[in-house]
Give the backbone structure.
Amino acid sequence: MDTPLSARHASVLVLTRFDETQHLDLHILDELTGPDRGQGQEYVQGILRRRSSLDFLIQQFSSVPFAEMDGFFKNVLRVGIYDLLYMDSTPDYAALNEAVEIVKTRMGQKSGDVVNAILRRVQREAQNLPKPDPENRTHLVSVTFSHPEWLVERWTNRMGERDAFLLMQANNRRPEYFLRVNTLKTSIENFRLRLEKSGIAFEESDWLPGYFKVQQLAEVRTKGWFDKGLVQVQDIAAGFAPFVLDPKPGETVYDICAAPGTKTIVMAGMMENQGSILAIDINGDRISKIAENSENYGADIVKIRRADAREERFKLADAVLLDAPCTGTGVLSKRADLRWRRSPSDLEQIVKTQAELLDAAANMVSKGGRLVYTTCSLEPEENIEQIHNFLSEYDNFEMMPLGDYLPEEVLAEDGYAYQTWPHKHHCDGHFGVLLKRVV
């Protein structure tokens, strides 16, 4: 009889697969149950947030060159060191013993002995761990805050070391989550009462109605509120885009790059299920989530179309939301894998794709209609520079002030854009503008 998969072993498999494919597939964690699944998530995300730091320690304590290490072996060490240094609830003996047993199952006793020796050195020197050479400032910062060197250089040059360090620190914290009440199924007041009776700690946002911050999702999940469609997970900053677009009952609305449909459902609620929303996405796998979520959350006015918005023609709409593909540098706390998947060349290609999608979206907007462009990026090329380039070509659109929609502390560009920062606003980093077609 096979031994049940443990949280540590499952995490090693997920991380090894990520190294091989640059795709984070968490499905193997579904084999875990109860607290083990949450622990597996903690290992995967925590290790991805701390990867540079962990890898530096492996190189310092191992006689085997890091580049020559087997990927599975490397990730057993990452999990073991993370256990020793960051998982206060894990006894050291458990971290050591299971790491050795995991590697022995695939690579034999000799590899198990090597893992044991490295982890015991980390354990002994935990209070006085080695540090990178301070002469190489970029490498030092990259290892300390576990971000790629190109991003370290980019952010420190643009915003200065203090803000860059605070941003990277924020990216390495365990994220908090916002729940958005689905007003198609319940009221904000009723859901607040549910939270109060449940004993789940929460904080209600005063930025947008119906958003509640919670520390963890496990307790919420056990209540069945997601299954009933009463509430969905959506960061408060992600809610700005539909709020600024302000779709009205009876309007025709397009949601471009809509999967998995979270913003689509928000807009259906704002429209009181009156009118029409066309959710468009190119990804066949993800587009099924729009249908699943729309049904679960009671968004009856949503129609779905798999299409490349750049290549097909659409009738004109009253309002268009373009949640553009981006580098995701504003969500590195929740999507730690992105920091290791992105490169400067990716940024160039993404900016090009965004410009093409923005061009296509503009041609879907009727005269007097609205277009919201939004990203979860912190990079100016994807954000305000993208909009300035767009407006230099489209003189029939103009940016609209956002002071009537959003709190002053999140506004940028003299109130004509919003930009949130994880270290300043304690939410994800999002950018957005409201464009009106005037001719």
Observations:
- The chain is about 45% helix and 15% strand.
- The chain has four domains: 7-128, 137-171, 177-233, 240-437.
